[in-house]
Design a protein that fits this description.
InterPro entries: DEATH-like_dom_sf (IPR011029), Death_dom (IPR000488), DED_dom (IPR001875), FADD (IPR016729)
Protein name: FAS-associated death domain protein
Keywords: Apoptosis, Cytoplasm, Immunity, Innate immunity, Phosphoprotein
CATH superfamily of the largest domain: Death Domain, Fas
GO molecular function, one term: death receptor binding
Helix content: 55-70%
Number of strands: 0
Radius of gyration: 18 Å
Shape: elongated
Number of helices: 12
Subcellular location: Cytoplasm
CATH architecture of the largest domain: Orthogonal Bundle
């Protein structure tokens, strides 16, 4: 599967209706009004941009500009990561030191996961985007929010911080499991 198409599909599923409307508005000079009226999803819009050769895996400046205009810095950073690595998320294929704790936490924290994420300083907007991207899968929402925290913190994402946040939420049993 083409990594760029996979990335575009991922972007499409994370766009709200209002964001899609904004993108369509911003593309009025590039795409005819008649074609824009037929756009119902990010996939439709990206398909037209690909077809008109306005974007490609090695030509993402327009996409970057569009995402900046709708204040989706998270998508801009994913796009930059794609440019640098040439893959959507090649590094996700290799488990790192945080994988095991994340799995343990996901397996043991239930519907109180948002409280934990707030303790880790993840914003409400980020939480809402993650929930919107995975509306029917609580475990995936939680997993993606932990990954988002990990990306946001980078090298400063410490297991000790996860344990501290778990204990701060009175999830001592889960904290004990992570410590093991």
């Amino acid at each position: 599967m083409d990594p760029f198409l996979t990335l575009l599909n991922s972007f499409s599923s994370s766009l709200s209706d209002a964001e899609l409307d904004s993108l369509k508005f911003l593309c009025r000079k590039e795409i005819s009004k008649r074609r824009l009226e037929s756009v119902r999803s990010g996939r439709d819009l990206f398909g037209i941009l690909l077809e008109q050769q306005l974007i490609a895996s090695d030509k993402v400046s327009l996409l970057e500009e569009l995402f900046k205009n709708i204040k989706r810095e998270d998508l801009v950073s994913q796009l930059k990561q794609f440019e640098e690595e040439g893959e959507v998320s090649a590094r996700d294929d290799q488990p790192d030191a945080h994988e095991k704790p994340i799995e343990v936490i996901c397996d043991n924290v239930g519907k109180e996961w948002k409280m934990l994420m707030r303790k880790l300083d993840i914003s409400e907007v980020q939480l809402e985007r993650i929930v919107a991207a995975n509306p029917y899968n609580l475990r995936e929402q939680f997993y993606q929010s932990l990954r988002e925290w990990q990306k946001w913190k980078g090298r400063d994402a410490k297991v000790a911080d996860l344990i501290k946040a778990l204990r701060g939420c009175n999830m001592n049993l889960v904290a004990d499991k992570v410590e093991k």
